[in-house]
Specification:
- There is one protein chain.
- The protein is of the alpha/beta class.
- It has two domains: 140 residues, Rossmann fold (3-Layer(aba) Sandwich), CATH 3.40.50.1000; 53 residues.
- 37% of the residues lie in helices and 15% in strands.
- Helix 1 crosses helix 2 and helix 2 packs across helix 3.
């Protein structure tokens, strides 16, 4: 399907890293601060995700509480993430384009996968965040790679697929985390491929 690919760029959250527990932690904190049941917060957040909105952020606003901090310590690699990177790094250059707090390289190293990654471009270090196309342009320039020779692999239609596609990059939507509930309504939102797990990438790449 994809010809002349040189670089594969991955998002981190809900793409390589399972954030389920971290989101649960944040929503429990929202419920505690707002003095409402956790189940109520979760159900309303789910409705918002299915309406293409950032559920945790919007529910905190709706309940009038400050968005609780994100617990990085709750994140774990998806079971197939290391195998995916190890195998694909034999054939392609591997990059990261992600909205992350400071220390992304160190966290990836701690999780044992930095050795498969050739480049990390993260928002905190670059001073620009997705969906701003400039962070993708920074990565492509640093990689000395044309958009048509690169693919963006991520869970978010708004942050990953739309900006990458608008630059001429190929795109794969990994339907993990809350991003899997996005409803496609425009052609610019439609990735070249959609997969339910990283393992499925082997059938495409």
């Amino acid at each position: 399907m994809f010809k002349n690919l040189k670089w594969l760029f991955f998002d981190v959250g809900s793409t390589l890293m399972d954030e389920h527990t971290a989101y649960e932690h944040r929503m429990k904190d929202i419920a505690r601060l707002a003095n409402v049941p956790y189940e109520e917060v979760y159900e309303k957040a789910m409705e918002l995700y299915k309406d293409n909105k950032k559920g945790d952020i919007e529910i905190a606003k709706a309940l009038g509480v400050e968005l609780p901090k994100w617990h990085k310590e709750d994140e774990i690699l998806y079971d197939d993430a290391e195998k995916c990177l190890e195998i694909l790094s034999r054939r392609y250059k591997i990059g990261i384009i992600a909205n992350q707090s400071l220390g992304t390289k160190e966290r990836l190293k701690k999780h044992g996968v930095l050795r498969y990654i050739d480049m990390v471009v993260a928002s905190a270090e670059e001073g620009v965040a997705k969906p701003d196309k400039r962070i993708f342009e920074i990565a492509l320039k640093r990689a000395e790679c044309e958009p048509g020779n690169a693919i963006m692999i991520g869970d978010r239609i708004d942050n990953d697929i739309i900006p990458a596609k608008s630059l001429g990059m190929h795109t794969i939507w990994v339907k993990q985390g809350f991003g899997r509930y996005w409803n496609i309504t425009k052609e610019i939102e439609r990735a070249d491929c959609a997969v339910d797990s990283l393992t499925e990438l082997f059938d495409i790449l």
